Amino acid sequence: MSKSHIMPGFRPALGFTLLYLALIVLIPLSALLLKTLQLSMDQFWAILTSKRVLASFQISFGTSLLAALVAAILGFVIAWTLVRYTFPGKKVFDALIDLPFALPTAVAGIVLATIYEPKGWIGRWVMEAFGVQIAYKPLGIVVALIFIGLPFVVRTIEPVLQEFDSAMEEAAASLGANRWQAFCQVILPNILPAAITGFALAFARGVGEYGSVIFIAGNMPYVSEVVPLLIITKLEQYDYAGATAIGLTMLMLSFCLLLLINSLQWWVRRRSGQL
Amino acid sequence: MQAVSLNNRQQTQTALNDPDWVRIGLVSISVFVITLFLLLPLTTVLIEAFAKGWSAFAASLSQPDTLAAMRLTLLTAAISVPLTTAFGVSAAWTIARFEFRGKSLLVTLIDLPFSVSPVIAGLIYVLIFGAQGWLGPWLAEHDIKIIFAVPGIILATLFVTFPFVARELIPLMQEIGHEEEEAALSLGASGWQTFFKITLPNIKWGLLYGVLLCNARAMGEFGAVSVVSGHIRGLTNTLPLHVEVSYNEYDFVGAFAGASVLAGLAVLTLILKTLLEWQQQQQRKL
User: What is the ipTM, given to two decimal places?
Assistant: First the structure.
């Protein structure tokens, strides 16, 4: 059964791992499912198709999609410059990329709201220049989610770009390709799976994001109320059935995303010959 | 002949290197985005925290409620980080050292909490331990408080930090292999001796890396903790929750003073993380 018969501790280590997994993750998550199963199909459906719930799903998925797209493009550029070029302060900028991972989301939330509100540093400028209000509008949610999503894209693309075999570029060049052709036909196809994975990670994180969003969103029902906030609102109104039904739906959707991300990563590894 | 090869090389060079305008353009975009999205928020925290001077900053940090929030944040991390670490080591030992059925399922399940919204992480514990939850009536009868109390906060933190140590250690231990451990065992070392003398020194930097990230998340978690905490001032507010409450009460100096402590922690985490990454690279080169 085990690869090396001499290695000790299989049973206790597996036992503790499974017990801890069950207690902290699996049993609590199954509570969500069991609680929802107490509802009839009609009740469940009625909760999900109520106008406010549908609107919040639309807002969450729409803003996350847009933010992940922007983060994917900006993240690609940043990863490219960090791997391929040298410029002063590069190490500091590189370390700063992980700030959204390390900074508590509540801190990110109040800071972004302060900067982008109509009287804030950037908010006022954008208001005067373009007449567009960022904070307390869906656009504010997008800004917060770009902040949250950026490191996912950069950190997924960076290693692939680093390991990218420049011999392929050299081959393309010696066969007469110019830089743009080499980029489009040799580099981009190799980086694209990683970029899509980064995009999917940023998207998945964005859909569930709460802390960094609620301060800048304005939280108007039907306009800028995201799904996680609606779950909390329902809980505070003691509408447990509503909260669990929405929660379970979100959980299922993120499982689908996780499945997609895993198969993407598997595909990337197979393409690069690691499997 | 020489001219041809020179010409060739020149062509190769132009196809391998980006033109200057592309280089300068892309670096400018990167620096602009990083400054706008990352550097500016970081400096804004400090500017807002000191907006009314040093004394206002110090006064709001030394308020009893703020101090209580800091203590609770430290307590939460002090309990959840060791537990998550113990789980991470145990999971890595199981997965990287043995073959068994369902192993890839186990790896997927360990990563699961990453893809669960923090709000749902809080919700599931409310469904079990809340007043209307499965164990709610029993807990009320025995006067045990979990939701809107410290145990709930710790449980929610355990959920969101769950994969942090394991996912660092599993690939690392797989990469290192088990030859050294087998050698120690065949020479008569006990399991624990092998772990402490062989495994632990080999994985220490990766382990520290995981613990560092786990600690940052434990101290900074907001969404999950917010659902189970009940926001009771001085009792169940962690520092991130205290920041939220102060902000919503328009106490901006108080909110940003708390935020600056958390931001300082984040910067410290980033510095240590960079050092650890450097250390790991050095070790790999040897």
Answer: 0.90
